[in-house]
């Protein structure tokens, strides 16, 4: 079997309808002439992005950057880092005043050092007016007060990935829509030898998604809207107890999982239900391994179950793009950000990503990627359903730090693995939050 992980590149053809060759270059040159964002003379940019998971997405992104260079003369050097390494590198750059001009990062990265970000309000206003407005999640991640400190390019939606035959064999016709039924499904899957599994390790994407869903779906939150710490609550206790019951149904080893682990387990056939982006399905569909193609045919996706709060309570992985104020070429940075999100570029790129990325501008709701395959459909809603880092509290440096420090992930890991008692796990999280919210 081919050893595919989340970091294995998904093969795929270029998106249908994409501008190619001379057509893309001609359009880009016309755009550069008309655009209100004019790069500085002799500008050159360096861009550090999250490491690609879908090869067709990366190929299409590189095409649009090449067209930008041909149209504007601005050379763009692109490098990539893993999810877990990108934030530390951005923080070092912010502290030292040296590094890439643009960071394309995760979650609330710009809110870790908002004073170091270029004001891109003009870019956000231009794009919002042209493309049907931004979803609320984009404004939360992109703005500090009334000022835009980043352009929220997309989110990576993560939902329940499951083997259809396995849940049917466990006695279920679909993934239950409530947490009580979901627990019963996971118990039944374990009994059938086709277990579920979710990461309790410090996985920036999947670990944060799972832990925050556990907390928020039970009505527990880190802080309230006044930044009063509220983690020590009956709702947190209920979330911990529910999480422990779920953990007991899991495949072994989830306490040490990173963002690649559940992909690997699912594609090996050992794992039958988890939460992830569409990358597992995308990889399996076009795999050279017939067994993995069989997995793709037998799997589907569903929304996160709703807990006692009775409404969606999920966090999706936002990908904001920010320019650092030490850059010598802030206008070139703005021009590149605007260029990426223009329809002629963004629509083909969204299709190339195959559902791995979800838009933040309302005009892209009708992109054919969401209807070409019914198994893609739930991911279209991810940007509109997601809460933000901190949930009830303001999205600022404190909320961003709490996310970066994995406080909610560690809360559940400490209790579920027996490292801490219920009270001990909560007390530790509370101390960590008090150190941040002071």
Walk me through the structure.
Belongs to the bacterial solute-binding protein 1 family. One of its GO terms (cellular component) is periplasmic space. This is ABC transporter substrate-binding protein. With about 450 residues, this protein is of the alpha/beta class. It has two domains: about 20-155 and about 315-385, 3-Layer(aba) Sandwich (D-Maltodextrin-Binding Protein, domain 2); about 160-315 and about 405-435, D-Maltodextrin-Binding Protein, domain 2 (3-Layer(aba) Sandwich), CATH 3.40.190.10. About 45% of the residues lie in helices and about 10% in strands. It has 18 helices and twelve strands. Helix 8 packs across helix 17 and helix 9 crosses helix 17. The longest helix has 18 residues, at about 55-70. The relative contact order is 0.19. The model is unreliable at about 1-20 (pLDDT under 50).
Name the overall outline.
globular
Give the overall pLDDT as a whole number.
92
Order of adjacent strands in the largest pleated sheet:
2-1-3-11-6
Give Rg in angstroms.
Answer: 21 Å
Number of separate structural domains: 2
Q: Structural class from helices and strands?
A: alpha/beta
What is the H/E order?
Answer: HEHEHEHHEEEEHHHHHEHHEEEHHHEHHH
Supply the CATH architecture of the largest domain: 3-Layer(aba) Sandwich
Provide the helix percentage.
40-55%
The CATH superfamily of the largest domain appears as Periplasmic binding protein-like II
CATH class of the largest domain: Alpha Beta
Which blocks of ≥5 consecutive residues have pLDDT under 50?
1-18
What percentage of the residues does DSSP assign to strands (E)? Answer: 5-15%
The CATH topology annotation of the largest domain reads as D-Maltodextrin-Binding Protein, domain 2
Number of helices: 18
Task: Report how far the terminal alpha carbons are from each other.
Answer: 52 Å
Biggest sheet, in brief?
A: 5 strands, mixed
